[in-house]
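haha ok so turns out i had the wrong file open the whole time. this is the CORRECT one, sorry everyone. sequence first:
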Amino acid sequence: MSKEDKFFETLRDFGGYVGRAGFLLEEAAEGRMDISESFKEISDVKRKCRDSFGPLTERMYKAYKDPPQLDSVRGLVERMYRMVDMTKSVLGQLDMTVAGEAPEEFSLMVRLASASLLEMKKILDYTDRISENYMKMEARCRRIYTYEDRGDDCYRKVMRNLYGEETKAAELVYWKEIFDHLEEVLDAAAGAVPLLQKMITKY
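then structure:
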């Protein structure tokens, strides 16, 4: 197994944490899983993610020597960690006492963020045979961009509603923080796409 193959093997494991974060987010937000349990599990996922960061970085430096390529790979890994971190922040907020009724855009925003994380995990699953799965990977990358675009529209709409209505200050702060974190999840996923594409184009 080459150094790059070993790196991708570790990266796929790291992608599994991202996919699990997406699953927990949607299950908890949609009421199919106890929020406290989901927060406990996402905290464990983040811990595993953090513990894996060192070995993944070590393999990254062994596999890549070209500075621009190394920057792309490092940026991808950092964004993946950011996705898990922001998902934990959302679930942490939801684990508190909910302030007011959830805006109607909440469910859509959660589904978009969750779908982006799951797509990222599926893309990384293909890295064991990149040349065979290149077109599938590209298609999933485009889906992530679509989710981000829809998320941007959803975010702007909910912000207009929150600030345009007589929303209580506590509710405004509470829901704005949650939507900010969901937006960051989508941005991190979309930001990871071009970096991933740079890695796989040579195959």
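Residues 3-200 form a domain with the Methane Monooxygenase Hydroxylase; Chain G, domain 1 fold (CATH 1.20.58.220).
again sry for the mixup
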